[in-house]
Amino acid sequence: MTHAPLRPPRAEPSVMGMPDTAGRETQDARHWTRAAVLALPDDAQRHELIGGEHIVTPAPAALHQRAVAALYLRLSAWLSAHPVAHVLFSPADISLGEDEILQPDLFVYRTPNGGPLLNWSDISELLLVAEVSSPSTARYDRQLKRARYQRAGVLEYWIVDLDARQIARWHPADNQPEVITGRLAWQPLAGGPAMELDVEGLFRELGGPTPPRPAGAGPD
User: Fold this and answer.
1) Among 17, 145, 155, 178, which is most buried by a count of CB atoms within 10 Å?
2) Are residues 76 and 126 both part of a single domain?
């Protein structure tokens, strides 16, 4: 069986469904498999499979892609100076031991013996997964994907919230995230060097909407 190529990254997700008689999209209750998703014709959208749920997202917004690029450049520069792992972005075809297709916006990975990544199955460990979120993607990022990456033991999972201008950081055993608006220290290996990410500076560089000021807040 030939596999259709995987789709580009995302913007607005939906659960794969069929229109009803009024033209609205309804959720498809089918339990999807990896083989079924890969057999779909190429439609220039991003397809993921998590826990039998088929998530489809069309082309991403410009601000989303700029955020992914800004994070990638920061992580890539740090990892070039501290070569403990490698960073990439989707499209991808990652499976962490279940019947699934994972395409995180950004991920830091290791391979056995530090060898080059020739096939997606060469990834032996994910040290970090980052998703750039929006109101329309929040449910998947905060619930379905977060639970999957925690279950897989991914060391850190970041939800980059462009509207709230903050990063929610999750570890595998966390019940609540650490919400960071200032500086984030990322230490991929215990006892190793740490990268400091200026979260406030990142969002200032990206521009976009500014969160409303708290009631009673004075001028800057």
Assistant:
1) 145
2) yes
Count how many domains the chain has: 2
Report d(CA 165, CA 104) in Å as an integer: 19
Does some domain include residue 121?
Answer: yes
Count CA atoms within 13 Å of residue 97 on its CB side: 9
Q: Are residues 48 and 148 in the same domain?
A: no
Give dist(CA 35, CA 174) in Å, integer. 32
Tell me if 66 is assigned to some domain.
Answer: yes
Residue 24 inside a domain? The answer is yes
Asked, for residue 219, whether it belongs to a domain, the answer is no
Amino acid at 217: A
Residue 97 tokens, joined: 């031991």
Structural domain range at position 37 = 14-57
Write out the two tokens for 43.
């439609």
Residue whose C-alpha is closest to residue 37's, from 106, 93, 76: 93
pLDDT tens digits in sequence order for the chain, 220 residues long: 444 444 444 444 444 433 333 332 233 568 888 888 888 888 777 788 888 888 887 778 899 999 999 999 999 999 999 999 999 999 999 999 899 989 999 999 999 988 899 999 999 999 999 999 977 778 889 999 999 999 999 999 999 999 999 999 999 999 999 999 999 999 999 999 999 999 999 999 999 666 655 555 555 4
